[in-house]
Amino acid sequence: MKKNIYSLLVSFLFLFACSTDDDNNKVPNPPVDPEVPSEESIYVIPDALVGYYDSVDFTLSTEELYDELAVLTIEKHKNILGYIDRHDYLYDADEDPSNPANVLLLYSGESRSKDEYQSSGNPNDVQTFNTEHVYPKSLLEGDAIADLHILRVADIEINESRLNFPYVDGDGQYKLVNNNAFYPGDEWRGDVARMIMYMNLRYNEPFDEVGDLDLFLEWNAEDPVSNFEIQRNEVIFDAQGNRNPFIDNPHLATNIWGGDEAENRWDGEADSTDDEAPSVPEGLTVDEKGFENIKISWNASTDNVAVTKYYIEVNGAYYTTVTSTTANIIDLAPGTTYSITVAAGDSAGNDSDESTALEVTTIADEEAPSVPQDLAVTGSSSSSISLSWTASSDNAVVQGYDIYIDGEFYKNVETVEYTIAGLDADQTYSFTVAAVDIYNNTSAQSTAVEGTTDADTGDSEGASSVIISEYIEGSFGFNKALEIANFSDDSVDLDSYSLMKITNAGETWDNEFSLAGYTLEAGEVLVIVNVDADRQGLLDAADIKTDHQVVNFNGNDPIGLFLDGVLVDMLGEKGGADFAKDVNLRRKPGSTPNTTFVPDEWETFSDENTEGLGAF
Length: 616
What we know:
The chain has 616 residues and is α+β, with helices and mostly antiparallel strands. The protein folds into four domains: 1-170 and 178-270, no CATH class; 282-361, Sandwich (Immunoglobulin-like); 373-452, Immunoglobulin-like (Sandwich); 463-606, Immunoglobulin-like. 17% of the residues lie in helices and 29% in strands. Strands 29-28-23-22-32-33 form a six-stranded mixed sheet. Strands 11-10-13-14 form a four-stranded antiparallel sheet, with no helix packed on it. Strands 18-17-20-21 form a four-stranded antiparallel sheet, with no helix packed on it. It is elongated, with a radius of gyration of 32 Å. 40% of the residues are buried. Residues 1-22 form the signal peptide. This is Endonuclease. GO terms for molecular function: endonuclease activity; hydrolase activity.
């Protein structure tokens, strides 16, 4: 398509106003029918917007109209916000109209306190929402990253599940589709479409990176502009100087790209005095219920203009907004009674009263799983016994198995096999297993089996060359680390090695951390650091960063090094004694593996002293 003078001006303004160097490599979806001009404008611009749009000739062909709107949107963007500065305005843009202390979250529609925003500077413990880039941040550069028109507050978990997946069609609430695409929800699909269209107009960002233009045009028509979108547009206009034209009038997208006929908010016939609320929803009915969900439906409300949405409340608290007359309410508790109401809303912001409450009780699960069968001993060493059994069944879902040793509870595991370490040599034990479902119903214990550990024949081959060489128990936060050293003249394969700890005053080794996959060359060390550590010396020396409990210890938690399930080296004392609280313990040269803690083998340093970490 041959570019006209307006297109050239758009290209010039992109280079001038945007810091990205790659905009000219992006190919936007062009307008349709570029050579067909309008004889006269089909729009009557509202008085409040005449001054803003006075440079645009709405009788132009679609290509020329696109160019003029692009030029306007770029030129009016006078205040280019920094990424941090965006928060000065984002709370106002996304503010809940019914509760100024809260914001409305994209996708879920929840109203949450502004104090729950997740950021490094937020002193509050509860941090439940953060910033969502509707056009993914990973696909943007320069000024586009902090443009308020594509930023929304969103639930952290929903934001993380969406990632940078493209948008696809769906129905009902937001959902991840096939683990590689995302539906924003009936209530938010139009919002998303108009934000994506803005990005194409303002930054030349292509549609096919994030979805399909035809789908966005469909959403733009099906989900009309809401008062909340209008609020956002006005706040962002005050902050940046430019507007989203597709919020001001969704029909502009139809004019430029075609597709489904969207609402024309500039038809000169809009009734700005509409204050009539829709009728109250009636006929609430339970269509389906399960352990954790209730699906309901109701009769459509009526309105003097049009009903555009329904608000669902559960036990008096806002749950979600839908545009259909059905809703699936999820994440409920089994055997619990819920009170559900529905209210209708129109595009002018008029809301009906709440419906008569529908009282519904989810299905209770009192059925225990089947008893585990075929429990058997599958292996042993001088300090461990391996077990396996057949999976249980349940009317819901089996979440794990409780293991008992000599009639005493040992631990819950999620697998159908487990190796119990830290046992005494040449000792016979009795084992049983019970299944537990996701609602904590527990089966009877299985038939018991007996297993005997092997006789103690001394340290396993190769054990004498690997030791625990350093232990840091940070006095603040998660600044905790362990170092393993090979002081022999040969390399050592760590596939059969693992670390375990005894928590507080316990007696049993637990929280096994396998070292499989690592090899220590002669004289080398392996440093394992808690993933949440923030002390630079720990981070610089780390070979492994993990959230495993073996590096979430206190100064009274012994640490053991195991080879084939046999304890070969140990740091600390059983019984809960504070042997290394808030300190760094470093092994003295010449030390050898020892299954008894000998304090004289260790030098004590401040926990902030990390100079020796990473070398032995």
